[in-house]
Amino acid sequence: MSSDLLMTWFEHAGYGGASADIYGSEGPCDTAGYEFHPDTTWWWSWGNIISSAAGTDQCNIARFITQSGTYGVTYLLPVAGFNPTVNDNVGIIRAWHN
């Protein structure tokens, strides 16, 4: 079973700081896409520090939803910086191919 690179998350705006490559095992993104729940346990967990993201040719759009689930914003990928409401406050990411 292969894994496909879907996204890369970055700690800082402008694709800076720590990064994490996110893979999917169900094939590349399609219109159904993938849903991720970044960890928020510690202050350095990805849901608490993510500030920018890059996609791939297969995953070129993503919706970032706050940890409270009350607000979400959709971006074409890559996105060099999130708006203040979701910056360092991500509970769910839905990524797909447009």
What does this structure look like?
The protein has 98 residues and is mostly beta strands. The chain has a single domain, classed as Gamma-B Crystallin, domain 1 (Sandwich), CATH 2.60.20.10. The protein contains one helix and seven strands, in the order βββαββββ. A four-stranded antiparallel β-sheet has the order 3-7-5-6. It has a three-stranded antiparallel β-sheet with strand order 2-1-4, with no helix packed on it. The longest helix is centred in the middle third of the chain and has 4 residues. The relative contact order is 0.27. The model has no long low-confidence stretch (mean pLDDT 95).
Quick rundown:
This protein is 4% helix and 43% strand.
Tags for this model:
3-stranded antiparallel beta sheet; single chain; 98 residues; 7 strands; mainly beta; Gamma-B Crystallin, domain 1
